[in-house]
Amino acid sequence: METFTDLLSWLVGAEGGAFILVSWALSWALEGLKWWEELVSKAKSLIILGVAVLLGLVSVWLTSHPTIVEAIAPYMQAVMYIVSAWLATQVAHRLNSLRKSYI
């Protein structure tokens, strides 16, 4: 449970985890979608801010309900490990592609 609790703390902490995560995830997920590209920069910023605030509020709510956190922690840890492994493969693939282009 500690890993999930640590994630919740990071999301709502001074490090700005929710904003960092949402900014990266939205820019990656929506990259290349025509409707997203057509939005003005200010609209994109407000959407990212809104989703980050929502994620932060949900995290604060969850931290105030330890029984819920305890119940979902094993599932969230599995999701976190899978996403971490997937991100590692994406980074490795990207770096490998860059290296191949230089050779």
Explain this structure to me?
It contains 5 helices and no strands. It is an all-alpha fold and 103 residues long. It has one domain (2-102). The longest helix has 37 residues, at 66-102. 6% of the residues are buried.
How many strands appear in the DSSP assignment?
Answer: 0
Uncertain residue segments? none
Number of alpha- plus pi-helical segments: 5
- N-to-C CA distance: 45 Å
Radius of gyration: 17 Å
As an assembly, this protein is single chain
Largest sheet: none
Instruction: Quote the beta fraction.
Output: under 5%
User: What is the succession of H and E elements?
Assistant: HHHHH
Name the average pLDDT. Answer: 80
Number of domains: 1
C-alpha geometry: flat
Question: Helix/strand-derived class?
Answer: mainly alpha
Helix amount = over 70%
Features:
single chain; mainly alpha; 5 helices; flat
Briefly, what is this?
With 103 residues, the chain is mostly helical. The chain has five helices and no strands.
What is the element layout, followed by pairings?
Blueprint lengths: L1 H11 L4 H14 L3 H5 L2 H23 L2 H37 L1
Helix pairs in contact: 1-4, 1-5, 2-4
